[in-house]
TrEMBL record:
Taxonomic path: Bacteria, Pseudomonadati, Pseudomonadota, Alphaproteobacteria, Rhodobacterales
KW Kinase (keyword) present: no
InterPro entries membership: DctP_fam, TRAP_DctP, TRAP_DctP_sf
Protein name per its UniProtKB record: TRAP transporter substrate-binding protein
Gene3D superfamilies noted in UniProt: Bacterial extracellular solute-binding protein, family 7 (3.40.190.170)
Length: 326
């Protein structure tokens, strides 16, 4: 291709990809650690379409997937500063700054995904979303993150005894460090993007995550033993920078909230389908899944974790209300 033609072709590509957002008065920058096509990424894109429709085309969302804007902990800070407008993250990386987020992040707090939905869709969920405001963020909606279980490169884990002395990566949250210590293993908090190479080089033996992340991160390639102990059903959250939020009219704020809430059922459908796909894919690729595991000792081992983190009357009451929710 001649140089001029090549430049013209490149300009045309830039123009066409930039077009969808160029029409909008406001384009919100949204971050996600997951690759394009992952349920969370697609849900935020859907939220953007809803927002555009709800504001007569004035507001758009551009999703920067695949950690293009950085690892979760850093993108949370940038969202607090208003450099990033929207962020789809796990509740885990908020644990050290927002105590309320620790409660749905407690191991075995939810009896099932349905129980988690019942809690997070109700007043407790609203209280947790409201807790973000004091930290320069606006909580908009909760997304699904399935249940998280341990995987490793060394051996099939069938009991807590097997976990003794092994090294697992956790999200950057003290609560998860204590959760791993409670089952007799060692925790290394580290950003998601460093996990693959850390398992490969033997810095850690494994990590813990849900089916879609185990698949899309490629962790199953380096840690083939996946033990379904399902210690966490931790929801994910879509937050907006308070700086961005404060710059919007009340009408636009309402449109943002509505679009975020409307994306939840879409996300749940995408999630349910992706969990099955990922499970089938990693099993076909040779992952060894251990399902015959007695969770009772795992649940009992978490008592000291609850004692350490559920300290204030407010948090104790929240745990009691979650346990009383059907
Ligand atoms: C995924 C979650 C991400 C991120 C990641 C991790 O399941 O969707 O937001 O928290 O786990 O372990 O860092």
């Amino acid at each position: 291709m001649k140089k001029q033609t090549l430049i013209a072709a490149l300009l045309a590509t830039v123009a066409s990809t930039g077009m969808a957002f160029a029409e909008c008065e406001v384009t919100l920058k949204s971050s996600d650690t997951h690759p394009d096509g992952y349920p969370t990424v697609e849900a935020v894109k859907f939220m953007g379409d809803e927002l555009k429709a709800g504001t007569g085309g004035r507001m758009c969302v551009e999703v920067f997937h695949s950690a293009q804007l950085g690892e979760e902990k850093d993108t949370i800070e940038q969202t607090q500063f208003g450099v990033i407008d929207l962020n789809r993250v796990s509740l885990g990386p908020f644990n050290n700054i927002i105590p309320e987020t620790q409660i749905p992040s407690l191991p075995y707090i939810f009896r099932s995904v349905e129980h988690m939905h019942n809690v997070m869709d109700g007043p407790i969920g609203e209280e947790i979303l409201a807790a973000f405001e004091a930290h320069d963020l606006v909580g908009l909606a909760f997304y699904d993150g399935g249940s998280r279980s341990f995987y490793n490169s060394q051996k099939p884990i069938r009991s807590m005894e097997d976990l003794k002395g092994m090294k697992f990566r956790v999200m950057q949250s003290d609560l998860f460090v204590d959760m791993v210590s409670a089952v007799g293993a060692n925790a290394t908090p580290m950003p998601y993007g460093e996990v693959y190479s850390s398992i490969q080089t033997g810095v850690i033996d494994g990590a813990e995550n849900n089916w879609p992340s185990y698949d899309s991160s490629g962790h199953f390639e380096v840690a083939k033993y996946y033990t379904l102990d399902q210690h966490l059903i931790v929801p994910e959250v879509l937050v907006m920078s308070k700086k961005t939020w404060d710059g919007l009219s009340a009408e636009d704020q309402a449109a943002v909230r509505k679009a975020a809430k409307d994306s939840v059922p879409v996300m749940r459908d995408l999630w349910a389908a992706r969990e099955k796909e990922s499970e089938a894919k990693v099993i076909a690729a040779g992952a060894e899944v251990i399902t015959d595991i007695d969770k009772t000792p795992f649940i009992e081992a978490m008592v000291p974790v609850y004692e350490k983190y559920v300290t204030s009357d407010k948090l104790k009451d929240m745990v009691a209300r979650i346990q009383a929710t059907e």
